[in-house]
Amino acid sequence: MNSPALEARIDLSAVAHNIEVLQAHTTAALMPVLKADAYGHGAVQVAAAVMSAGAAEIGVATIDEALALRRGGIDAPLLAWLHGSSADFGAAIEADVQIGVSSPRELTAVVEAARTAGRTASVTVKVDTGLARNGVAADEWDELRDGVATASAEQSIVLRGVMSHLVRGDEPGHPLNSLQGERLDEAVADLRRLGVGPEIVHIANSAATLTRPDLSRDLARPGIAVYGRSPAPDLGDFGLIPVMTLSAEVLSVKKIPAGQGVSYSHTWTAPSDTTVALLPAGYADGVPRLLSNTLRVHINGRSFPNVGRVCMDQMVVDLGADGGGVEVGDRAVLFGTGEHGGPTALEWAEAIGTIDYEIVSGIRGRAVRTYVGAPAPIPNGRHTPVAAGPG
Ligand SMILES: *Cc1c(COP(=O)(O)O)cnc(C)c1O
């Protein structure tokens, strides 16, 4: 079968490898973070891969993301921690999704949903220890803590966990990391004094899992490292393997004369007679337009520069006067593992002043995901189809 014209190939054996790398750095159990459709890699397929590689639970942002995993046949423990006013706590409780709670208001809504369902909700309190994003604010702590004690006593909820999120995990030596750990421990101690200790405590993200084992507590929540990207590129790649390879088919090869401008506004003009190739990848697929005239691709192991504007659907690369031996139907790697000097998502990110998280989670549009290195059926025995799907 021919590969899709624009393909995001997801190597699930690399996911399994990355889980092993993470587990080798921590005694904590792993809760891979699969929010945003597994950072653009496909949540159901990645979920099956991480669970068969030994992960304990899965974390996502929203209840909708958790329910999509359930529909995909994933019955691993799931936690969702970001809720709008329309969040369906009842559906989460029915589907056995643990609910992260960041305010007394959310706790009240969860308790009401549990009462309506006639079931006990599994709750993880998310404490703001310094990020000032979601998480229980300091001035709401006492009310939340007392509410957790009351709701636990009446068995509307069971306190499964207490969690927080780091501000500067990618700077392992920064004192804020330890301070956040202490604040988290204080919150746990405060709950224990009321007789409602959590079953588990967690704060580590990818960076802390790899560099601060002392912050691991019971569970670690790595995201980006699962996908093989270093959470702290300055500190190295930790032996992680990038999971996504974005490649495009060469749609045409044509000769252009010296002086010919290429693509909108002719931002690049051929300095001498040359050959250019057309690729079906553009900013609607997640190739940043800001990379115009900056990115490079690998075709048959050789590097060629993009010339002219990256458009919505297309871009052009310069093959040089001799055409570089490139033919219609060859494949251009836009980014991948970086093996043999190939381009990487980190290279794109650094060129435009962002992080590779934004690059990989932004691949979309016409990019079709395909999966290789599929794991054995997930531990509960259900088989999760690992088939090509729309990106
Ligand atoms: C996204 C996220 C993570 C994972 O962070 P990485 O830097 O990708 O490892 C962990 N915990 C929470 C609460 C998150 O929102």
Written account of the structure:
- With 391 residues, the chain is α/β, with parallel strands linked by helices.
- It contains 11 helices and 20 strands.
- The chain has helices at residues 12-24, 35-40, 43-52, 63-71, 89-94, 104-117, 141-153, 175-193, 206-211, 345-351, 356-361, and strands spanning 6-11, 29-30, 58-60, 78-80, 97-101, 121-126, 157-163, 200-204, 219-220, 244-249, 252-256, 261-262, 268-269, 274-279, 296-299, 302-307, 315-318, 331-335, 368-372, 389-390.
- It has a 10-stranded mixed β-sheet.
- Helix 1 packs across helix 3 (43-52) and helix 6 packs parallel to helix 7 (141-153).
- The radius of gyration is 24 Å and the shape is elongated.
- Residues 378-391 have low confidence and may be disordered.
- Residues 33, 35, 81, 165, 205-206, 221-224, 231 line the site of pyridoxal-5'-phosphate.
- It catalyses: L-alanine = D-alanine.
- It holds the Pfam family Ala_racemase_N.
- Its EC number is 5.1.1.1.
- Keywords: Isomerase, Pyridoxal phosphate.
